[in-house]
Amino acid sequence: MYQELVDKKVKLAVIGLGYVGLPIALEFARKISVIGFDISAKRIEMMKQGIDPSNELEKEAFDGCDITFTDSLDVLREAKFFIVAVPTPVDEHNVPDLTPVQKASETVGKVLKKGDYVVFESTVYPGCTEEDCLPIMEKLSGLKNVTDFKLGYSPERINPGDKNHTLSSIVKVVSGCDAESLDQIAKTYELVVKAGVHRASNIKVAEAAKIIENTQRDLNIALMNELSLIFDKMGINTYEVLEAAGTKWNFLKFQPGLVGGHCIGVDPYYLTHKAKELGYHSEVILAGRNINDNMGKIVAKKVIQHIIKNNGDVKSSKVLIKGATFKEDVSDIRNSKVSDVVNALKEYYVNVDVEDPHADSDELMHEYGFGLVENPASDYDAVIIPVPHKQYKDLDENYYTSITKPHAMVADLKGIYRNKITNRTYWSL
């Protein structure tokens, strides 16, 4: 398979051209022939014009790529190597929603041929690829894994907005259903991953490796968040504590904050869901999730307390929130915990304005029920900065003075203005 791909005798297809799928597809398209498949005709038309619908890639990223964008199964059928990169969200009860990955499995099953390879990149719980996705493909294709086609799993590790840790510079974990598939899948990814690949012993190991990467990060941030709540009651600044503790060589430099996005705030639930099915109730992981999931309400409560103390009339108060995406310097609003802050403030009938240089107002309105203001007012009772976009870091005390009342609070969740704001009440996690 590898040699046929290199010789462009066969094509590789990427199914799902979002934040993960499109960069992978374009990277491969510089080496081999690629089919980029997505169910959204609108997104396909944008990509045909060299536009990334996710706003992560510049038009130059499409240059020199041997790629065909399509939403047609007939075109998709031309491929022999399939990479599935669709999202794996949770529902409103934090239960894994496998619908996207199941639908993608159906799509592959309809075009699967003897000798084909299928590699899943979607983050799932250990066992999902073989227990949930494989039966769908086998049923629709009439083919059997190992004997008729090969199955693999290689989790994505792309960090949105991170220009240093890209697909090619991060070691790629790969796995296959047998020795042959592992070798061919590893060689294929080595075409585009300069950092090399790690060959996992089996698919479940690779699935587990991915899910604990984000679970570990989630728990470390949860610890920082809990520490920030304790230190706040003690009247000491968390970032000053972390700065001091960070002078030790083995101290892990995590920070408190809102934990959203499609991965860190979601992946732990996939692991705990599977654990529950097996009769084990997670304690540590879910405890961390509970802390992180409640941080939006905690921030809102802190601001409300300040308004009550200094203004009294909560209903007439105004709060500006600077930043709506799930993290800094990206346009991705998926699972943004800023919405938790907005909703908690509105429960107290606070007038809330939100602005963000990266987010799309219509998308926010559709997803969360609020849009963006173009021009902030000049009489806010509080300003909350949950997302430290680059555009915000150069703002100074004069700016915040110009848009707030004298008694206002500046809630700087990531501490980017520490020791820089003195004429307004300053608070950070």
* Helix residue percentage: 25-40%
Summing up helix and strand content along with how strands pair, one would put the structural category as alpha/beta
Number-wise, the strands total 13
Query: Strand order, biggest sheet?
Result: 3-2-1-4-5-6-7-8
How much of the residues is beta strand, in percent?
A: 5-15%
Overall geometry comes to elongated
The number of distinct helices, counting runs of at least 4 residues, comes to: 16
Number of domains: 2
End-to-end distance: 52 Å
What CATH calls the topology of the largest domain is Rossmann fold
In CATH, the architecture of the largest domain is 3-Layer(aba) Sandwich
Explain what this protein looks like in three dimensions.
By secondary structure, the protein is of the alpha/beta class. It has 2 domains: about 1-210, NAD(P)-binding Rossmann-like Domain (Rossmann fold, 3-Layer(aba) Sandwich), CATH 3.40.50; about 295-429, Rossmann fold (3-Layer(aba) Sandwich), CATH 3.40.50. It contains 16 helices and 13 strands. The strands form 2 sheets. An 8-stranded mixed beta sheet has the order 3-2-1-4-5-6-7-8, sandwiched between helices. It has a 5-stranded parallel beta sheet with strand order 10-9-11-12-13. The model has no long low-confidence stretch (mean pLDDT about 95).
